[in-house]
Amino acid sequence: MKHAFLLLLLLCASMAFSQTPSTRVPLASAQSPLAAPAAGVTNTEKERDLYKLMYENSANANEKLLTLTQWTLGVSLAIVLGIIASQVFFNYRINRQELDAISNGIQGQIDRLQLEIAQKFTEEVSKANSSLESSKTELTRSVNALIEAQFTVNEKALERELRNQKGELMLEIRQLRRLAKKNEGDIWNLKNVKSNALSCFIEVAELETGLLMDEKYTLKEIVQLLTELDEVMHTTHDKLEALLPKIRASNISLKNKMVEILKTKPTYNFVRPDRQDHFLFNMPQKQYVRNKPK
């Protein structure tokens, strides 16, 4: 602003000093030819000379005025160009400083924004990692619980299957034992060893009651053998008494026959004598415990 003000003052001064001076011709000089006309000169010639002189004075004045005007315009143009140049330079410096300040401010904001973004990114990554670890732990716990539950279910199902298979296997084994004992009883019966046949058929009847089979035909064999035997062993008698409560109601008549026969059937047992001085006296001897024959 200071440079502009000085340039403005110089422009005003140049305009003040550039005023054209008066072009008026001195009266004495203009009137001297008229006042003292030469001898023998006509008035027309005098006027012509006067106009010529006035033209020359006017041409000189115009030339001076034109020169001064050109000089004034040149100085004014130089001043104006100087003002414009100073303003452009001043504005360039100001704009350059402002641009640098703006650039520095923008760069600072960019740096702060990058730092904030990096911090937020780090925080988000940390949160994501924590959430991922938590989800992983929860997923592992859930998978373990699911595997454990599935293992428990499979284990229980396997246990049930094993129990079923075990039950079926035991059932088959008991059926096989029943058939084996029945065959054994038939063999002893064919050999006419009635007591051994009776023991086998009693065990067959026990197996049939456990297998929920009809023991009717086995009970008939037992009644037939009891009728044919004169006496029974004490162990056989006890087995029959243990079998009686297990007989189903549909075979009550056979059960009653067995009870009637046992009431009167002699029962014996083998015991060792007290004497042990000789091996012959050390042999087991028959001893009746029920319904001793006379």
**What topology, given as strand order, has the largest sheet?**
1-2-3
Helix and strand element order: HHHHHEHHEE
- Proportion of residues in extended strands: under 5%
Report the C-alpha radius of gyration, rounded: 77 Å
- Unreliable parts: 15-41
What's the rounded overall pLDDT mean? 79
Specify the oligomeric state: single chain
Number of strands: 3
Structural class: mainly alpha
**Beginning-to-end CA distance, first to last residue:** 164 Å
Q: Kindly state the percentage of residues in helix.
A: over 70%
Shape, per Cα inertia axes: rod-shaped
Largest sheet: 3 strands, mixed
Number of helices: 7
Short description:
With 294 residues, the protein is mainly alpha-helical. 77% of the residues lie in helices and 4% in strands.
Q: Which tags fit this structure?
A:
294 residues; mainly alpha; 77% helix
Explain what you see.
With 294 residues, the chain is mostly helical. It is built from 7 helices and 3 strands, in the order H-H-H-H-H-E-H-H-E-E. The protein has helices at 2-17, 27-35, 43-190, 194-210, 216-228, 234-243, 252-264; strands spanning 232-233, 267-271, 285-290. Strands 1-2-3 form a 3-stranded mixed sheet. The chain is rod-shaped. The relative contact order is 0.04. Residues 15-41 have low confidence and may be disordered.
Element layout with pairings:
Elements: H1 2-17, H2 27-35, H3 43-190, H4 194-210, H5 216-228, E1 232-233, H6 234-243, H7 252-264, E2 267-271, E3 285-290
